[in-house]
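Practice problem 4.
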């Protein structure tokens, strides 16, 4: 069997970033999109939804990169690429540099024109809703309905000096959230076959009714090369977990999709991890994770957010994963350090 030929992003100048061309995140509950989790969220136009990947702001920042400049404020950009710029300025390896090493995610328009700035996304990430059963210490009301309930009960969160933290207030529900979901499903019906990856997350993905609607949509497409990734805290009822997985297994059997990834979010192991992620019960996590380990049709990942509260418990978790690797050697461990929150 011949290995599929790998194609890489046709970078013509630094600091071009593959994410700017191939990735779009849709924040349905906020009515916004961006092309990197560190970058500016731009409002989606419900009347022109299909252009979410080629909004004027995104095209402008691609053009700035093609001119050999970072999209800083001085250069006419948003300045949100400064994270990678700072990492590279001191000799580090940035997200941008790592993404350029990833093959087979090039928008088709770039095959004929490496300078194309209006392109088709290859990776689509969808934050469907904020419905969540946990309230992690480093999270907030934009991503967790449990956080919203906490703030409604106890009031605005402040720092030790009593200054309100601007990210910690309850925003009104986006009036177009349902419309954006419907338009996303319609877009997938027409374009799922053009994607290489589809990420579904929340909130807690398994608790969201939107997940069922997304699976309904995928049952109607033929995207035999599409990799679908669900991110979950695994704090869901076993019956719900297994029933969703059975639906996904059928999608694979029917060649509606090409691969399924389950990304289990957990930051360590033991009391420290349960304290940092309010709602986590390690014994229940382990029960569902053990089930997933034995599903050879799944590609299984773990994802950690590194904070001072859990860093000492990470070695215990790593040892646990090493034991599971005796059954499933391909389990990956991914991690990122928390940035941006002053507390």
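Answer key:
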């Amino acid at each position: 069997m011949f290995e599929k030929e790998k194609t890489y992003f046709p970078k013509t100048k630094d600091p071009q970033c593959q994410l700017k061309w191939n990735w779009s995140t849709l924040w349905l509950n906020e009515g916004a999109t961006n092309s990197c989790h560190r970058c500016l969220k731009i409002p989606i136009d419900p009347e022109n939804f299909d252009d979410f990947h080629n909004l004027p702001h995104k095209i402008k920042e691609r053009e700035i990169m093609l001119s050999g400049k970072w999209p800083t404020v001085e250069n006419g950009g948003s300045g949100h690429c400064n994270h990678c710029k700072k990492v590279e300025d001191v000799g580090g390896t940035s997200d941008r540099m790592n993404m350029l090493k990833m093959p087979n995610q090039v928008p088709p328009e770039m095959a004929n024109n490496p300078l194309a700035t209006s392109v088709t996304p290859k990776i689509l990430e969808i934050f469907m809703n904020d419905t969540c059963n946990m309230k992690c210490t480093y999270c907030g009301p934009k991503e967790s309905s449990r956080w919203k309930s906490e703030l409604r009960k106890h009031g605005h969160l402040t720092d030790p000096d009593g200054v309100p933290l601007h990210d910690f207030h309850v925003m009104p529900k986006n009036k177009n959230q349902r419309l954006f979901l419907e338009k996303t499903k319609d877009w997938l019906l027409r374009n799922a076959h053009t994607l290489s990856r589809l990420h579904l997350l929340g909130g807690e993905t398994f608790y969201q009714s939107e997940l069922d609607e997304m699976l309904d949509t995928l049952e109607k497409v033929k995207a035999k090369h599409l990799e679908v990734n669900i991110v979950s805290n695994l704090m869901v009822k076993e019956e719900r977990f297994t029933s969703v997985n059975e639906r996904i297994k059928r999608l694979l059997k029917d060649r509606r999709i090409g691969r399924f990834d389950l990304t289990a979010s957990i930051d360590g192991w033991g009391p420290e991890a349960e304290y940092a992620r309010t709602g986590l019960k390690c014994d229940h996590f382990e029960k569902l994770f053990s089930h997933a380990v034995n599903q050879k049709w799944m590609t299984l990942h773990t994802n950690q957010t590194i904070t001072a509260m859990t860093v000492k418990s990470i070695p215990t978790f790593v040892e646990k994963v090493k034991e599971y690797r005796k059954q499933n050697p391909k389990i990956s461990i991914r991690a990122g350090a928390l940035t941006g929150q002053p507390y």
